[in-house]
Amino acid sequence: MLVLVHGYLGGSEQWTAEIDRFSDRFDVIAPDLPGFGEAADRAACGTIAGLAAAVTRLLDDLGVDRFTLLGHSMGGMIAQEAAAARPERVERLVLYGTGPLGLMPDRFEPIDVSRERLKADGVARTIRRIGATWFSSGREPRGLDMLIRIGSRASEAAALAGLDAMQGWDGRGALGRLTMPALVIWGDGDRSYRWPQVEALWRGLPDARLAVIPGVSHAAHVEKPGLFHAILADFLRREP
């Protein structure tokens, strides 16, 4: 079982290519977090622990006991939290474009600024502005329209709660307990999670590999899907 957890202003639809690529070997589950994507009508959650619990409850309802867990961006924080809470269930852990500290030092803008601009501009304008920082290939790169469409579905309550959740989360103390095989994936142009965060994650996990994808920013799976899939497939061949 492969579980794909999206990040801030994301949704399950962003994983369409990954579902197509890996469904021949895995049952793939890509949930929409409460308030985002197809779950925009669900109540927002303002903590990473609460979002992790929502993912875990879904897996419980589906009768899924053991799985490989991949989290992107805020979803990577959720994946760390879920794995720390129930490490015996997570066979492998993939942390992509993320870090162990939700405050995100050296982010392209402070979270407080994002919060105030979100209140002023609304969700649709916010995802267009923030989403543009997730790419390195120009002002209107391929794939940006898809992510804008997905992100625009989020409720404003969920968008604000997501910022609160990230700002209040610190997973550094739990890294040593995440002993399952782990893969850290990072785009070398990522403006949300800079190298010190990624290095802390990689060095803090007991059994971690690091893959740096050149020439991409925060949406490596969209900018260079072939390379992203090859890296992920190589790791998934590793026995848990």
- Class inferred from helices and paired strands: alpha/beta
Strand content: 5-15%
CATH class: Alpha Beta
Number of domains: 1
The low-pLDDT segments are none
Major β-sheet annotation: 6 strands, parallel
Number of strands: 6
Architecture per CATH nomenclature, i.e. the level-2 architecture: 3-Layer(aba) Sandwich
Mind telling me the CATH superfamily name? Alpha/Beta hydrolase fold, catalytic domain
Give a short synopsis of this structure.
This protein has 240 residues and is an alpha/beta fold. It has helices at residues 16-22, 48-61, 74-85, 111-121, 123-131, 144-151, 156-167, 195-204, 220-223, 225-236; strands at residues 2-5, 28-29, 67-72, 90-96, 182-187, 208-213.
Summarize the structure in words.
The chain has 240 residues and is of the alpha/beta class. The chain has a single domain (2-236), classed as Alpha/Beta hydrolase fold, catalytic domain (Rossmann fold). Helix content is 41%, strand content 13%. It is built from 10 helices and 6 strands. The protein has helices spanning 16-22, 48-61, 74-85, 111-121, 123-131, 144-151, 156-167, 195-204, 220-223, 225-236, and strands spanning 2-5, 28-29, 67-72, 90-96, 182-187, 208-213. Strands 2-1-3-4-5-6 form a 6-stranded parallel β-sheet, with helices on both faces. Strand 3, helix 3 (74-85) and strand 4 (90-96) form a beta-alpha-beta unit. It is globular, with a radius of gyration of 16 Å. The chain starts with a strand and ends with a helix.
